[in-house]
Design goal:
ABC transporter involved in vitamin B12 uptake, BtuC, 328 residues, globular, mainly alpha
Length: 328
């Protein structure tokens, strides 16, 4: 990644982070908000800034960075610009774990039960993927296994909601599945950060292997790349990132598809260079979307996952249409 691109994306993230801190339902002058964040001479405003807006902004940047980064890894590993992290079914499995805790009432009894159940679902999905793909399965086998896990998790979520005896719990689960960063706190950030950052560090160790894969699996193996080890690390890293993001924010899709695709030309389609660019771009995208949900319909609580789907789905259809034209 060029220095100009890195500086530009970093500056964009910082500007959006500042805007995220200053924009909210309470109409407070910017300087007063920043003063409350630093000095805390106004206890009420300091509480709003430090306990509500700051963790929400940091979590938006962290989740966006993780999803953008994992999307770049997924596209590099599968050598397909239309791939995205949800393809492996990890996010669906995490959502199933969360929905079960909401339906059983565990989420109301133990605040950390929901994210822990979501992370457990993501871990189980990885185990099932490894079992289905087998020790020597290729990327196509992994994709098919991911589709199967995703379908199974989706069916599980539907079944739990269908058999729910409590309509209020079912309604709460539906709203959670839409994805949101509203009312997220430092505890959510503390829970998600180790998994997302750890997953990103783990995947970053495979940057050279992803570059080698552009030559094909046989060529990469001849260069000394252990394909079985690479696949295991990719699955574990993606599970940690996507599972943690889903655990604290619900289902937020299309970041891992849209951001790497937009930035691909800027790094000349080199997978290793795309990783950091996608992390910064993903952070900027989720921060911008989270600001938008507060401005578009502030009284109706527009969900972040809904807005991302409204942005991402047409973009995905455009990519498919352009891909078809290019190969016709």
């Amino acid at each position: 990644m060029t220095r100009a691109l890195a500086l530009g994306l970093s500056a964009l993230v910082l500007v959006l982070m500042l805007a995220s801190l200053l924009i909210g339902p309470a109409s407070v002058p910017p300087m007063q908000s920043l003063r409350a964040l630093v000095i805390a001479d106004d206890p009420l405003m300091a509480l709003v800034m430090r306990e509500l807006r700051l963790p929400r902004s940091l979590l938006a940047a962290l989740i966006g960075a993780g999803l953008g980064f994992s999307g770049a890894v997924m596209q590099g590993y599968l050598r397909n610009p239309l791939a995205e992290p949800g393809l492996l079914g990890v996010s669906g499995a995490a959502a199933l774990g969360a929905v079960i805790t909401l339906q059983t009432g565990l989420a109301s009894l133990f605040p950390v039960a929901l994210p822990l159940a979501a992370l457990t679902g993501a871990a189980l999905a990885v185990g099932l993927l490894a079992l289905l793909a087998g020790p020597r399965g290729g990327s196509l086998t992994l994709i098919l296994a991911g589709i199967g896990v995703s379908a199974l998790a989706g069916a599980g979520v539907t079944l739990v909601l269908n058999l729910s005896p409590d309509p209020f719990a079912a309604n709460e689960a539906m709203f959670w599945l839409m994805g949101s960063l509203t009312d997220r706190s430092w505890s959510h950030l503390a829970l998600a950060a180790p998994f997302i950052l750890g997953g990103m560090i783990l995947l970053a160790t495979q940057a050279r292997a992803l570059d080698a894969l552009t030559l094909g699996e046989e060529a990469a193996a001849s260069l000394g790349i252990d394909l079985m080890r690479l696949r295991l690390i990719v699955m574990l890293g993606l599970a940690a990132i996507v599972g943690a993001a889903t655990a604290v924010a619900g289902a937020i899709g299309f970041v891992g598809l849209v951001v790497p695709h937009i930035l691909r030309r800027a790094v000349r389609a080199r997978p290793a260079a795309l990783l950091l660019a996608s992390a910064l771009g993903g952070a900027a995208m989720v921060l911008a979307a989270d600001i938008a949900v507060r401005l578009i319909l502030p009284a109706r609580d527009l969900k972040l996952g809904v807005l991302m789907a409204l942005i991402g789905a047409p973009f995905f259809l455009h990519l498919i249409f352009r891909h078809r034209l290019a190969h016709s």
